[in-house]
């Protein structure tokens, strides 16, 4: 028996709820203060993001990884829905992989590129740089196009390198470079890569589910994303949507046991959604709920519209307050935006951050090496009215102005 007493005062409700539990016939009545499980602030970050209460509540149950309820009823459903979200073209399949998004990138690079092959990495930010680091760690031959952090790659550049080095077999690029918020020209680059019959790997971590894209139409062979970005799940696993005929060539290529993308896929295919090693069951269940909520919102197009309008409200409000965007507007994605830090001597990011956090908003430091900036994301369970409230909170937190 469990009795929940909610204390009347608004102030007390902020702190928590008093729960009186009759434990069993011989123990005394226990009283405990439960933490308020609603979010106290919005995460305006590159991930993990603010999730809905219903997504978080989906985790309040334990699951057996051996049961059909979990494997067929949750994992297989997710795998199918992911493929549907990614493309209308036949021949694609999906694999889920434990770990943060980087683990899925590493699993893909490490499983897909054969020993005698060569990878071209397009690098215009921290996540492109990371793909190069992965290739280095795994001893994979590679060439990096170094663009710095504020330049967009061009398809002509990629074409030139592919035409001058025939040993390159695979190309990897980030879709939305979360370092700055820049959207890379995926259609044009894929065109160049596929017309030369190379394998295309796209890190669409921070854009998949938030920006419409049919990977089959572009001929993308492997696309990587994770649970805690635009699908608005909680962190714990990543996933890869793959052209099945290409994935099938990858048996025995992996450079790591736990990150063997092919073997993970084979296990899921043969055993109806069974993961090879312990799966993050609660995260997976929450993701299933998050996919339902994406559908309820109206799918990727509707979510894109929400994010895009969030971003426009953010930029218009910030510019009115005197902030300047790092990138030209033509390069912006609707995912995250970088702003130059104010030049005033009194300005200190940590202090600004704390003032905003007190008002219910968490922003993020910049990651650009040669410019002092900070970032504000607008993905997650964040809505237009939140962005308007944020602008008011920022105005009230400009202690240096
Ligand atoms: C978030 C993100 C990743 C993965 O980061 P993790 O911290 O490993 O989850 C990779 N690439 C891009 C573009 C990202 O935005």
Automatic annotation (TrEMBL):
Stretches of the chain forming a coiled coil according to its record: none
Keyword Transcription regulation: no
One Pfam short name: Aminotran_5
UniProt: substrate binding residues: 375
Residue ranges occupied by any Aminotransferase class V domain in the UniProt entry: 74-360
Gene3D superfamilies listed in its UniProt record: Aspartate Aminotransferase, domain 1, Type I PLP-dependent aspartate aminotransferase-like (Major domain)
Cofactor(s) named in the record: pyridoxal 5'-phosphate
Catalytic activity: (2-aminoethyl)phosphonate + pyruvate = phosphonoacetaldehyde + L-alanine
Enzyme Commission number, as recorded: 2.6.1.37
Domain of life, source organism: Bacteria
Function of the protein: Involved in phosphonate degradation.
Name of this chain's protein: 2-aminoethylphosphonate--pyruvate transaminase
Gene from which this protein is expressed: phnW
